[in-house]
Amino acid sequence: MLKAKFMRFWNGLRQKLSFRNTSEEASNSWKGWLLTIIGLLIVIWTALGFYWSNEPNVKDVVNLAESSAKANGQTLVVGYTTAYTLNYLVDSILTKPGGYLSNDVTPPSIFLDNMPNWEFGVVIQLRDLSRALRKDMSRSQSQSTEDSDLAKAEPLLHFNHNSWILPSSEGEYRDAMKYIQSYAQRLGDPSQGQAQFYARADNLASWLRDVETRLGSLSQRLSASVGQDRFNTDLAGDVSSEQSTPTAQEKQVKTPRLLVDDVFYEARGAAWALIHMLHAIEVDFASVLEDKNALVSLKQIIRDLEATQDTVWSPFILNGDGFGIVVNHSLVMANYISRSNAAIIDLRELLEKG
Fold first, then answer.
1. Three-state secondary structure of 134-150
2. For residue 82, what are the domain limits?
């Protein structure tokens, strides 16, 4: 009797232990598969992140514009290269590796910040050039009618750059491309006399004024990677000038450490876009620049901006002191941006007064 009860107890215990071991093995197996899948996703996302963070190379938009005009059976008229370049740059940020990342909400894009800031720098330049085309370059005088295609393209490029859906930024920018392409096609068509491009010194100077304010702001933000005590010069040079509210006569300006790389890549993207635009300007405003003996000045500006596109060998943007042991990438970038900005100011003044 006792032996029988003991055997039943022992068999039951063995069954419970066996079930528990089986459950633990199944649980361990499930956890193992889960960890494997997570590990693979991390590897894939990391590889895609590195690949998508590669910036597009600078292209010869002059030759590309010539090829495009020939392919479409058009004559390469004044203004076509600039319009083509604007369209090419929009297409580049939409079709580069990974596509347009600024509005992505899924991995790995959501973890990237360098490329979205680079894209934002490009978008700002696209907006400025599209506004200049609509406001000045396509109009003969202040009372003339604006071009219908450019009037539709400009607000689309000013759409929120990080809108994911309803509508998406990509959708708005693609619609803008259609209108820019239509304008470029009409430029070379003798039957479409309404589409014009006026390569005048005042039109170029107006756009350069926008460029210099953008570069000036970027230069200040890059230089602020290290804290600086600055005097307030907002009202300097005009004794009768006023401002809305009083501000301190001296303040410290410093870009937060976590935003240093954001400003760096925004400046890098803006410079990348400007290199292409200035090459187009060199072609379409050639007669104006030669008349002012300013062609070599423009070439030097392009060369200084090209230096901003050199390879960054460091895995992250360093933020050392100005004369410290560790390099400060932002100050190096600020040097090239400031030199380009100073040359653009001289060029703009030459066009206005020369």
1. HHHHCCCCCCCCCCHHH
2. 60-231+251-353
With respect to residue 180, please indicate whether it lies within any of the assigned structural domains: yes
Q: In Å, what is the CA distance from 265 to each residue of 119, 272, 334?
A: 9, 10, 12
Residues 266 and 153 in one domain: yes
Q: Mean per-residue pLDDT for 1-21?
A: 55
Q: Give the per-residue pLDDT at 191.
A: 73
Asked if 271 and 324 sit in the same domain, the reply is: yes
Average pLDDT over residues 138-155: 88
Residue type, 150: L
Alpha helices in the chain (DSSP H): 2-52, 61-71, 80-95, 114-132, 148-157, 169-187, 201-223, 260-284, 286-291, 295-306, 329-353
For the whole model, what pTM was predicted?
0.87
**Out of 122-126, 150-154, 184-188, 245-249, which region has the weakest mean confidence (pLDDT)?**
245-249
Residue 241, class by beta-carbon neighbours within 10 Å (0-12 exposed, 13-18 middle, 19+ buried)? exposed
Residue 245, SS3? coil
Q: Are residues 263 and 210 located together in one domain of the fold?
A: yes
Instruction: Specify the DSSP class assigned to residue 309.
Output: G
CA 169 remoteness from chain centre: 14
How many structural domains are present in the chain?
A: 2
Residues 347, 213 within the same domain = yes
Element (H, E) at 229: strand 228-231
User: Phi and psi of 79, rounded to 5°?
Assistant: 100, -20
**309: which 2 tokens?**
């596109």
